Amino acid sequence: MYENSFPHKRFGLTLEFLEKHIPKTDTILDLGVENPFSVIMKNAGYKVQNTTGLDLDDDVSEIEKFNGDVVTAFEIFEHLVSPYTSLKAIKSNKAVISVPLKLWFSSAYRNKNDIRDQHYHEFEPWQLDYVLEKAGWKVVDRMKFTNPIKKIGLRPLLRKFTDRYYLVYCEKVNPS
């Protein structure tokens, strides 16, 4: 199980899932700027580099230049208009991806003060599976999990029982 020292339940579960599928000898391109989870991956012994913060809807050059083993995208694709473009640009044969799931009782996250800090998509699992398949990927393993929050109310109660994240390990269908 995940260690209590992680700041969020999802970090522990995500690291366990990553360790299940990705050896520490693999090199990783983590989409997005350095973040708390990319630091956790490095501290766990992974060789990780991040993209520089380019808008991946408009510029996938950093993805295309990466010649390593694995691309990770943890809560990145919900910010893009088209995750398909980034998925097609990946040359690596393995990817680990997580996205927030659409909740029937809550609107998609929106930050009116920062256009980059909002969700264009919140997914149903089949939607991520579909875009992965269309981009040439096969989901090998998947998991869903909740994200309870320490607040009182109906929505916080529902979050204890309703899956919030979808995490997949996938491989290219026709590796190059």
UniProtKB/TrEMBL annotation:
Domain of life: Bacteria
Matches recorded under InterPro entries: SAM-dependent_MTases_sf
Protein name as annotated: Methyltransferase family protein
Species per Swiss-Prot/TrEMBL record: Nonlabens xylanidelens
